[in-house]
Amino acid sequence: xxxxxxxxxxxxxxxxxxxxxxxxxxxxxxxxxxxxxxxxxxxxxxxxxxxxxxxxxxxxxxxxxxxxxxxxxxxxxxxxxxxxxxxxxxxxxxxxxxxx
Length: 100
Fold this sequence. Notes:
mainly alpha
C-alpha cells in the first residue's frame, strides 16, 4: 500500500514539475514573441517614415520643376500668358455671375 502511495506522490510531483516547466516555456515564448513584435513594429515605422519622406521629396521636386517650367514659358511668351490669364479670369467671372 505504501508503495502505491509513494508512486502516486511521485507521479503527482512529476506532473507538477512538468506543468511548471510548461508554464515557464509558455512565458518565455510569449516574451520572445512580444519582443519580436515590438522589433517588427519599430522596423515598419522606420520604413513608413522613409517612404513618406521619399514621396514628399519627389512631390516637392516635381512641383518645383513644374513651377520653373511655367515661369520660363510665361517669361518667353508674355502676351500669350496675359491672353490666357485674361480668358481664364473672364470665364471664372461668367461662372460666378451665372451661379447667383
